[in-house]
Design a protein that fits this description.
559 residues, alpha/beta, five-stranded parallel β-sheet, 13 strands, gluconeogenesis, G6P_Isomerase_C, Phosphoglucose_isomerase_CS, isomerase, SIS_dom_sf
Length: 559
C-alpha cells in the first residue's frame, strides 16, 4: 500500500473529505434548484474564452475549500516560479520554459543570467524567412522546381501539436501564397509515409525532420526511408543530382541537437533551434510549429502565440477565484480525488478541432500520469484520469450511450465557438451554414443538460420504462470561444497547459518529465536488436519469447 501523503494530511484536504461526506450523493438537479443563478456564479471569462463550471457537481463552499487547498499547496507561488523560469522540472533539474516561446519581442526573461527572448525571436525570424521562401515559390528542389508538398516527420509533441493546430486553423491560410500542402507522418510502421511516397513528386517534396533529441527511433526510421526515396530518384541515373544538393534542398531539421542534425546530413542553414528547456508536448509554440506557420503564415502564427501569452498573463495576474486554469484544475481535483471519477472525455463541437482530444491525451496523461511525489514517495491518492474523446456530434452516435446510461462515471468537457461562418460571401450559403452551426450548438448545450438532469430534462421522464431512464448527475464543463481564431486557439491550448500544471502542483508530482516513455523506448530498442540479430531471446519471459519466435517463423516463410 502507498504510504500516507502529506497532501492527504493538509487541513484543506481533510476539510474537503468532510465536505464530500456531508454532500453525499447530491444530484445536480438539486444543486440547480437550490442555486438558480449557478451560471453566473460559476462562469468566468478571459482571453476570448468563457468557462462555465456550473454543471460541475459542487457548491460555492466546495469551490472555496478547493481554493484553500490550492493556497495550502502553494499554487500562487508555483505559478510565479513557472513563469519566472525557475527550475520547476525537479527530476531533470531545469526550468520548463514553453511560456517563454510566446513572449513578445519587447519582453525580457532572464533565466540564470541569460535573457531568453532574443534567441526565441531569432528562431522565429529564421522560421519566417523559410516560410516566406516556401510561400513565394523561391525554395526550389534539387532539380529547380518549387516545393509543393511538405511532410512533417515527428512523433508525440513533434506531431500532435502541429497536426492539431494546422487542422484547426486551415481556414486561415494566407492570401496570395502559392499552393503548399502540409502532411504528417508519425507512425514507425511506415504506413503513413508509404502513402505519401506513393503519390508525391520527389522533385517538389520537402521533409521537416522534427525531433528534440534527434534519437527518436520512430522519426528517424521514417526519415531514413524518406532520404533513401529522394536519393534513389533525384541522385540516381535519371537526374544525377549530387546527394549533398538533394539533402540540402529537401530537408529541414528541428532539434536541440545541431551536431546530430549535421551528422545526419541536414545543412546548417536549414536547421531550426529547439531548446532542452522545452518539453516536446509543450513545443508547438517554437520551431516545432514550422508546419503551422507553413499552413497559416507567420502573421497568424504570431497571433497564436499572442493568444497563448494573453492566457499566460491571466494565469499570473488573476486572483485564484477568477483564474480560468486554476478553476478548471480544481474542478478536476474534485472529480478525481473526491468524487472518484477517473474518466474524462473531451468533446469539441467544431470539426476543425478534430485532433484536440488526441492532443490533450498526450498533454495530460504524459504530464500527470505519475505516481511518485517530488521527494520520491508513492502518492496516496489518484492523479491523472484517463483522457479520451472525439468530435461531439460524431461521438453522440458512438459512446454517448455509455455517458447517459452506462455504469461508468465520466466528466466531460464540451468545447464550441459561439460564432462561425460570418465571413462566407454568398448569402444563401452563409445562411445554410449558420443554421448548421446553430444545430451543432443546440446539440452541445442539450447533451450537457441531459447529462446533468437525466430524466428531469424530459417531460414525464420519470414515467419511462427502466431501459429509457437517464440517471443524470454526470458533471461537465462547457468552454465557449468567441470565435475559433489563432488567438483564441492559442489561449485554449495554454488554458489546458496551465490546468495540468496546477493539478501537478497540488498532487506534488512533476508534469515535465516522462520516464515511463523513456523506459518503453529503451526496452523496445533491446527487443529490436534481438529480432534483428536472431539471438538473445532466452533472456526474455516466456510470452515475449513466444511472440519473438512467432515473428521469426513468419519471416522465414517469405519466399
Amino acid at each position: 500500500m502507498p504510504s500516507a501523503s502529506p497532501l492527504s494530511r493538509r487541513p484543506a484536504w481533510r476539510a474537503l473529505v468532510a465536505h464530500r461526506e456531508a454532500l453525499g450523493e447530491v444530484h445536480l438537479k438539486t444543486l440547480f434548484a437550490e442555486q438558480p443563478a449557478r451560471h453566473r456564479a460559476f462562469t468566468r471569462s478571459a482571453a476570448g474564452l468563457t468557462l462555465d463550471l456550473a454543471k460541475q457537481r459542487w457548491t460555492p463552499e466546495t469551490r472555496e475549500l478547493l481554493l484553500a487547498l490550492a493556497r495550502e499547496a502553494g499554487v500562487p507561488q508555483a505559478i510565479a516560479r513557472l513563469l519566472d523560469g525557475e527550475r520547476v522540472n525537479i527530476s531533470e533539474d531545469r526550468p520548463a520554459l514553453h511560456t517563454a516561446l510566446r513572449l513578445p519581442e519587447s519582453a525580457s526573461l532572464v533565466v540564470e543570467d541569460e535573457d531568453l527572448v532574443p534567441a526565441v525571436h531569432r528562431t522565429l525570424a529564421r522560421m519566417e524567412a523559410m516560410v516566406a521562401k516556401l510561400h513565394t515559390g523561391q525554395w526550389r528542389g534539387a532539380t529547380g522546381k518549387p516545393i509543393r508538398d511538405v511532410v512533417n516527420l515527428g512523433v508525440g509533441g513533434s506531431d500532435l501539436g502541429p497536426l492539431m493546430v494546422t487542422h484547426a486553423l486551415a481556414d486561415f491560410r494566407p492570401e496570395g501564397s502559392q499552393a503548399l500542402e502540409v502532411h504528417f507522418a508519425s507512425t514507425m510502421d511506415g504506413s503513413q509515409l508509404a502513402d505519401y511516397l506513393g503519390r508525391l513528386n520527389p522533385e517538389t517534396t520537402l521533409f521537416v525532420l522534427s525531433s528534440k533529441s534527434f534519437t527518436t527511433i520512430d522519426t528517424l526510421s521514417n526519415a531514413r526511408t524518406a532520404r533513401d526515396w529522394l536519393l534513389a530518384r533525384l541522385a540516381g541515373e535519371r537526374f544525377g543530382m549530387p546527394a549533398s544538393l538533394v539533402m540540402r534542398q529537401h530537408f529541414i531539421g528541428v532539434s536541440a541537437s545541431p551536431e546530430k542534425m549535421r551528422d545526419w546530413g541536414i545543412a546548417d542553414a536549414h536547421q531550426l533551434e529547439f531548446w532542452e528547456w522545452v518539453g516536446g508536448r509543450y513545443s508547438l509554440w517554437g520551431a516545432i510549429g514550422l508546419p503551422i506557420a507553413l499552413v497559416v503564415g507567420m502573421d497568424h502564427f504570431r497571433e497564436l502565440l499572442a493568444g497563448a501569452h494573453a492566457m499566460d498573463r491571466h494565469f499570473r495576474e488573476a486572483e485564484l477565484a477568477d483564474n480560468l486554469p486554476v478553476l478548471l484544475a480544481l474542478a478536476g481535483i474534485w472529480n478525481v480525488n473526491f468524487l472518484d471519477i477517473r474518466a474524462h472525455s473531451i468533446l469539441p463541437y467544431d470539426g476543425r478541432l478534430e485532433y484536440f482530444a488526441a492532443y490533450l491525451e498526450q498533454l495530460e496523461m504524459e504530464s500527470n500520469g505519475k505516481s511518485v511525489t517530488h521527494d520520491g514517495g508513492q502518492v496516496g491518492y489518484a492523479t491523472c484520469p484517463v483522457l479520451w474523446g472525439q468530435l461531439g456530434p460524431n461521438a453522440q452516435h458512438a459512446f454517448y450511450q455509455l455517458l447517459h446510461q452506462g455504469t461508468q462515471a465520466v466528466v466531460c468537457d464540451f468545447i464550441a465557438p459561439l460564432r462561425r461562418y460570418d465571413e462566407v460571401a454568398d448569402a444563401a450559403t452563409r445562411a445554410h451554414l449558420k443554421e448548421q452551426h446553430r444545430l451543432t450548438l443546440a446539440n452541445c448545450f442539450a447533451q450537457s443538460r441531459v447529462l446533468m438532469l437525466g430524466d428531469e430534462a424530459l417531460e414525464n421522464g420519470d414515467a419511462q420504462p427502466s431501459h429509457k431512464r437517464y440517471r443524470g448527475n454526470q458533471p461537465s464543463t462547457t468552454l465557449l470561444l468567441e470565435r475559433l481564431t489563432p488567438a483564441t486557439l492559442g489561449a485554449l491550448i495554454a488554458l489546458y497547459e496551465h490546468k495540468v500544471y496546477v493539478q501537478a502542483v497540488i498532487w506534488d508530482i512533476n508534469p515535465f518529465d516522462q520516464w515511463g516513455v523513456e523506459l518503453g523506448k529503451r526496452i523496445a530498442g533491446e527487443t529490436e536488436r534481438i529480432l534483428a540479430g536472431r539471438r538473445g531471446q532466452e533472456t526474455m519471459d516466456d510470452s515475449s519469447r513466444g511472440l519473438i519466435e512467432a515473428f521469426w517463423a513468419a519471416e522465414a516463410e517469405v519466399p
